[in-house]
Amino acid sequence: MKVFSFAFVVGVLAATSLTHAADIIGTITLTGTPPAAIPITPLMNDPICGPLHKETPTTHFYVVGKNGEFADVVVSLKDAGGNEITGKSTGASAAPAVLDQKGCLYAPQILAIQTGQKLIVRNSDPCVHNVHTTSNAGNTEHNDVQMPNGPDLNYAFDKPEMFMKFQCDIHPWMFAWVSIFDNPYYAISGTDGKFVIKDVPPGKYTVVADHRKLGEKTQAVEVGDKDVTVNFTFEVK
Question: Can you give the pLDDT at residue 80?
């Protein structure tokens, strides 16, 4: 009986090691000179929004470090055939994501969530905003007024979509873009250009790196029981 138990445990451990999830890690780099950031002068001319800033804010379409570290690139997985990974969402049990309106700007400007995941939209400003969403994938659209420092708005979306637009019609310079996935296998590169997609099951995938202005790049990858490194370089000509 003891021999059987030992063999059984060994078998279970072996099976577990074979199905161990790994991380996909990497760095996104930008080469070339991106377009200069544009000062958001209408914000400074607004009698309520302007005093919230000591200096004129600028657009952040290209967030690049001194060595080309490229932020705000959305990295996700498709199956080996390039198809969306569907039916894997853990959004219903995931922690809520937060999109804040602060200083009459959206923060963060680039966000990613899962289908079914709660998205909290907050108004931290002393002025009225309206949260106006526009979908190209059939997600429910919203156009909701939010009072100064008012209650949070809560949303959830059921269809995958890249760069769903959030805007404030009262302050037309305010935009954010939310990507929605039907699985938890995605990440957004930080200001150091790095990203981590955690706990990826073994298999063959297509890794997709997508920047709102520069489009997407892909690489094929096979994940086993060790972390895999995948780097991307975008170019501005």
Answer: 87
Condensed to tens digits (0 to 9), the pLDDT of residues 185-232 reads: 999 999 999 999 999 999 999 999 999 999 999 999 999 999 999 999
User: Can you list the domains of the chain with their CATH numbers?
Assistant: 21-85+185-237 (2.60.40.10), 87-184 (2.60.40.420)
Over residues 130-178, the pLDDT tens digits come to 999 999 999 999 999 999 989 999 999 999 999 999 999 999 999 999 9
Q: pLDDT at position 21, please? A: 86
Categorize the per-residue pLDDT at 126 as very low, low, confident or very high, splitting at 50, 70 and 90: very high
- Can you give the chain as a three-state secondary structure string? CHHHHHHHHHHHHHHHHHCCCEEEEEEEEEECCCCCCCECHHHHHCCCCHHHCCCCCECCCCCECCCCEECCCEEEEEECCCCECCCCCCHHHCCCEEEEECCCCEECCEEEEECCCCEEEEECCCCCEEEEEECCCCCCCCEEEECCCCCCEEECCCCCEEEEEEECCCCCCCEEEEEEECCCCEEECCCCCEEEEEEECCEEEEEEEEECCCEEEEEEEEECCCCEECCEEEECC
Residue 205 and residue 221 in contact, taking contact as beta carbons nearer than 8 Å: yes
